DNA sequence: CAGATCCATACCGTGAAGGTATCAATTGCC
DNA sequence: GGCAATTGATACCTTCACGGTATGGATCTG
């Protein structure tokens, strides 16, 4: 019924070396023991894993699949045990779910500088279900763009993320204090990432070299400031609403601390 | 050294019930056995997991952490074993990595209808490292926007995804059959999709409420059609290059089949 | 054909897991 | 306060899985 992790490790070593003798040596056990363990493992699983001749060891389809699974499972178990030991040493932990569209680096940097003892787990989510890790308990906080008000979640709007126009410092508009969307009419706007740029850095390269102007959220503008680029607030651009969702059943010190930090970040602008 | 999954299951059951007797009953073992196994488990891990009095059972911090880990580990192991059994029954499997910005549903639907015997694993990636699952063996195929030519990956451009202008249905241009980039001069263009700024849904909200026009790939236009939006092909807009990356070390029938399907999809338009 | 290589089998000792019987401690009732 | 009930821990026994050594059978090599 339970998968035996020791046997899984034995199997993974044999699969890696394709050789019982060398695998046994690596595992610090005698070769006959390894043969017997693998055989027993195959019986427990109910399927053959290895095709052995006296001169070669090959993987069956099931064996190949199990080998790939083992390469996921074994390190993840080791990491889990490490986290348990950390918790035993008093390390607090906060798992934050975020969709790729949301910029969380500032809040996390600020939070970790204040709470150096708290370990952060970043859990990437699929953008169409940003609340999933929250619901299945894998995260305590989730970043969302729009407002979910589904049951069991507590939504905390942490502010409008204002948008900035990013342009070359030499651009005529760069002398202004702020802009409106009307000022940008007729400007060449970069719809990135496009065929030439996919990284945000390349985007700023393009802007700096005069290929156009882009609208970016405050947090991006702040973290990519360079002397040859100007960022101007666009007063009437629709802000991007960012929310934090927290599960209703947990309200500890760490969680409250992060909410405060995240809110403060956006407020400060 | 190896975590004992049986003991982990025992512990998880005790943690769930907070009661040795009932947990033992659920596990179909005698209560003293359970007590001894938990004690042994704590010694193996090197930390206390439970605070027991004769009338109550509580979790320590380490115990709480381990309980959460167990809720991830145990189902994932069961799923892994299922996949191994599937593989043993001849079920082929294909893991596809994709960043949220890339639309893969059409290709997958088409592929599964042709290869009903192949199980698809969808692996969401962080957009800044879309090739990660490929490199660590968790996926056989990765969707990318731009051309990575890093070592060990084989890049297959599967075509230009033509771009459509998305605008309110009431917009003057919406009556046209097709557009050129010149027609869009002076229009307010929305700087999305930008993985750092906005969800797709929000983008279409903005467009519908008259805040601008956006260029979107065909696949996105097709899957987000709504009555108040119009999508018109832009004949001279540079297409968005979509690539598939495959690990160089695997070239089986299933993988080749998917490449063909994905290419055909984009060709058909 | 002889020797080397390599995996499998046979057999043995140790220890962990499961069982039953019972103890010790706390709670609750009278 | 004392007694019964509840609950987890301990003691002791049996079985079986895991480790070891010795050896067999098959295949490749010179």
TrEMBL record, chains A, B:
Q: Which UniProt keywords apply?
A: DNA-binding, Transcription, Transcription regulation
Location of the HTH lysR-type domain: 3-60
Gene3D superfamilies (UniProt xref): 3.40.190.290, Periplasmic binding protein-like II (3.40.190.10), Winged helix-like DNA-binding domain superfamily/Winged helix DNA-binding domain (1.10.10.10)
Q: Which residues form a coiled coil?
A: none
Q: Which InterPro entries match?
A: LysR_HTH_N (IPR000847), LysR_subst-bd (IPR005119), WH-like_DNA-bd_sf (IPR036388), WH_DNA-bd_sf (IPR036390)
Q: What does the sequence similarity comment in the record state about its family?
A: Belongs to the LysR transcriptional regulatory family.
What is the name listed in the Swiss-Prot or TrEMBL entry for this protein?
A: LysR family transcriptional regulator
In its UniProt entry, the species of origin is given as Streptomyces orinoci (Streptoverticillium orinoci)
């Amino acid at each position: 019924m339970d998968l035996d992790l020791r046997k899984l490790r034995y199997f993974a070593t044999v699969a890696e070396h394709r050789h019982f003798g060398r695998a046994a040596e690596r595992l610090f056990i005698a070769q006959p023991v390894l043969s017997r363990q693998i055989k027993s493992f195959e019986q427990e699983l109910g399927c053959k894993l290895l095709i052995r001749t006296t001169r070669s060891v090959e993987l069956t389809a099931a064996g190949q699949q199990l080998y790939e699974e083992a390469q996921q499972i074994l390190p993840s178990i080791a990491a889990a045990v490490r986290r348990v030991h950390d918790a035993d040493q008093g390390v607090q932990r906060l798992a934050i779910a975020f969709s790729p569209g949301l910029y969380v680096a500032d809040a996390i940097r600020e939070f970790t500088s204040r709470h150096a003892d708290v370990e952060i787990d970043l859990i990437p989510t699929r953008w169409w279900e940003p609340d999933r890790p929250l619901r299945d308990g894998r995260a305590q906080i989730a970043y969302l763009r729009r407002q979910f008000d589904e049951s069991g979640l507590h939504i905390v709007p942490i502010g409008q993320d204002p948008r900035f126009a990013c342009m070359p410092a030499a651009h005529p508009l760069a002398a202004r204090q702020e802009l409106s969307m009307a000022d940008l009419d007729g400007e060449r706007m970069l719809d990135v990432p496009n065929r030439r740029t996919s990284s945000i850095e390349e985007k700023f390269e393009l802007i700096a070299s005069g290929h156009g102007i882009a609208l970016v959220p405050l947090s991006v503008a702040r973290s990519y400031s360079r002397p040859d680029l100007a960022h101007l607030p666009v007063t009437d651009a629709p802000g991007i609403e960012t929310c934090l969702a927290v599960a209703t059943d947990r309200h500890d010190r760490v969680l409250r601390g992060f909410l405060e930090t995240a809110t403060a970040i956006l407020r400060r602008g």
